[in-house]
Amino acid sequence: MNNTILLTKDESKAILGVQDLKGWYEYEPSYDGVITHINSAGAKLFGFTSSDDVIGKKVNELYAHPFDHEKTLSMLFRDGQVNGFYTLMKSRNGKLFFIKQASSVTLEGIDQYPIKIRSEFEPVQMLMSL
């Protein structure tokens, strides 16, 4: 059986718009993983009108599967960086899309505790919910 997805003009434009966006975000790795900064392209990608609307949100709320955030953190703390890792994310209105991310962690002090994580991401594809 063939499954065909028909997109409206608006949905087609949304896919093209997501694929054209590139951005980055960084957050302090506090106990609860709160976003402290995101640029306007990143905010737009996740369906927010401005960066201020994203500040204070938990970063794992942007992942389609919150376990992927834990997996990313695990790789960061093991290797110090993550390059070319594909992750399924979700926008504020529930649209799913993949990003290709490159992340690094900044460590400080004798104990080398994390003070900042910086991620650059590039949207890859948007999935239409049926």
Give a verbal description of the structure.
This protein has 130 residues and is an alpha+beta fold. It has one domain (9-127): PAS domain (Beta-Lactamase, 2-Layer Sandwich), CATH 3.30.450.20. Helix content is 25%, strand content 36%. The chain is built from 3 helices and 5 strands, in the order H-E-E-H-H-E-E-E. The protein has helices at 9-20, 40-45, 66-79, and strands spanning 23-27, 35-38, 81-90, 96-108, 113-127. The chain has a 5-stranded antiparallel sheet with strand order 2-1-5-4-3. The longest helix is centred in the middle third of the chain and has 14 residues, at 66-79. The chain is globular, with a radius of gyration of 16 Å. Residues 1-16 have low confidence and may be disordered.
Q: What's the mean pLDDT score?
A: 75
Q: Helical residue percent?
A: 10-25%
Strand-residue proportion:
35-45%
> N-to-C SSE series?
HEEHHEEE
Instruction: Give start-end ranges of low-pLDDT stretches.
Output: 1-16
Total beta-strand segments: 5
Number of domains: 1
